[in-house]
């Protein structure tokens, strides 16, 4: 059942996304005074809450795992559009933007969101149950895509630096899209049962709850408002990004930390949706959101920037440095050891949150 959107009324879930989109259109590309930045930030927070609410309405109508797929893909598509736009406008300084954003998304989803979901699920019932088959497949897909797209460019020799040649980038794009399509087909058609919620007794739940699903009209309205809210979230994040950059610079933090902050804000809807699902003992839905977002982030971003690179000048740095490769390898190992049993305790949740905290700390102090 769709959760209530907190302090927002039902009318507010309609008005706030539209208002946030209007303000986005009026403020895009302009230098904003402090009071207007504060207004955009408030509307950004409201749009996040609305996005979660409307995503849960759609999820209740279409069922799992389609519901979690809707939010993950919607956020990622808009995020990819933002990355391509920033790369087109940023010149040489945006050479590593795609790599930094995708890697941050992987760390946030596979450690931050997964750790939070496991911690909440295990705290409420001692253990957090989920499907071994589906979750292992998702982790394997994340590991494959991340290695092919973010690790290999560091070691290829056809072009100096952590870059792919044109042919290598085209191959990586085709493979990423094919693997993403294969995973979605398995998740939604061939082995849908692997991604359904699991009770503590091992029973697979084909229905999210016993409440009546929303009408078709309500579902389409929520789907439209979900897209509006997500456009507002990503766009308003871009609008206030100069303020974030100035704050990061004033604090003496590395410029790369800006990407982490922006990724955290963009992924807020998925984080809150995963938290709500974990609180309702639907850990599998939380993991679907987290791993699905990581897979979509790589599987859709790499093909998009491969196409965009045809007309964009400048370098495209995709290969990770040594520190980030260690973090990725450790994340994969811990993720595999977490999901092979199909039940997680507070320890596993704490380990993933520790890796997430380490990623954030190393972004601040590399």
Automatic annotation (TrEMBL):
It comes from the Bacteria. It is found in: Membrane. Keywords: Membrane, Transmembrane, Transmembrane helix. InterPro entries: Alkaline_pH_Ca-Antiporter, NaCa_Exmemb. Pfam families: Na_Ca_ex. The chain crosses the membrane at residues 12-29, 35-54, 66-87, 102-123, 135-155, 167-186, 219-235, 247-268, 289-311, 317-339, 346-364. Residues 35-188, 222-364 form the Sodium/calcium exchanger membrane region domain. It is a multi-pass membrane protein. PANTHER family: SODIUM-POTASSIUM/PROTON ANTIPORTER CHAA, SODIUM-POTASSIUM_PROTON ANTIPORTER CHAA. This is Ionic transporter y4hA. It comes from Streptomyces cavernicola.
